[in-house]
Design a protein that fits this description.
about 110 residues, alpha+beta, 4-stranded antiparallel beta sheet, 4 helices
Amino acid sequence: MNYPELKEIIKQLKKTVPCNVCQKKFLDEDLQVVSTYQNEGLFHFNCHNCKNQLMVHVSIVGQNAEERSANLNIRTRNPDKVDPNEILDMHNFLSKFNGDFKELFLS
């Protein structure tokens, strides 16, 4: 994904993807590019109004630039909430973890 494509995708996302909680439009500072690879991108939105977070996956389909901008495949998903017990479990695990990943994955 090149820079002009990325700019066009961000413009389209801001225009077509409102916050699914408060329905406000996202601002530039609400958007983070998490990753891009070939014709796909992953974006993180953090609503300035209600603090809702949203993950957006975009695939570009088409042969030429006009087709690609007209054929954006956009999927959205709210990240799962982290349970406080999960945080405690991870803390307990890490406090006892000795750094041996072979042992961790083979046991």
